[in-house]
Amino acid sequence: MCLRKRKNAIKNGYEWRWHSKVEENQHDVCNNLKKGVRGSEKYILYLWKTSGDFLQSQWDKVFELLGSDVDTIAIWGTFTYTCLLYWIVASFYTFIDVTGKPKFAVKHRIQEISSYPVPFSSVLKLGRQVLINQFLSIPFYMVGYHLMVLRGYDTKKSLPSFQRAFFELLFCVLVEEIGFYYSHRVLHFPFFYKHIHKIHHEWKSPIALAAAYCHPIEHYFSNLIPAYLGPFLLGSHIFTCWIWYSIITFSTLINHSGFHFPFFPPPERHDFHHLKFNQSFGALGFLDYLHGTDVEFKKSESYRRNCWSFSLVPVKDLYPSDPKNN
Question: What GO biological process, any one, is recorded here (predicted)?
Answer without folding.
Answer: lipid biosynthetic process
